[in-house]
Amino acid sequence: MVANSYITNHSFIQSEIVPLLETGFTGTLRSWWDKHLTHESKQQIIHAVKLNEDGLPIFDEQI
Length: 63
Description:
- By secondary structure, the protein is mostly helical.
- About 55% of the residues lie in helices and about 0% in strands.
C-alpha cells in the first residue's frame, strides 16, 4: 500500500521506494535484512515482479 502511494502520489519508481521502506525496518526484520540476507538475495527481493497464471509480469495491478 505504501509503495503504491509513493508511485501514484509522488511519481517515485519502484527502485526508489525500496530504500525508503527499508529505513522503517526494525527489530527482527532489521536483523534479518542486515545480517542474514546476502546482497544477491536482497537484489532478488528488490526486483521481484508478480506473475500471472501464464507467467507474464503484472505491472499495473494494485498490490
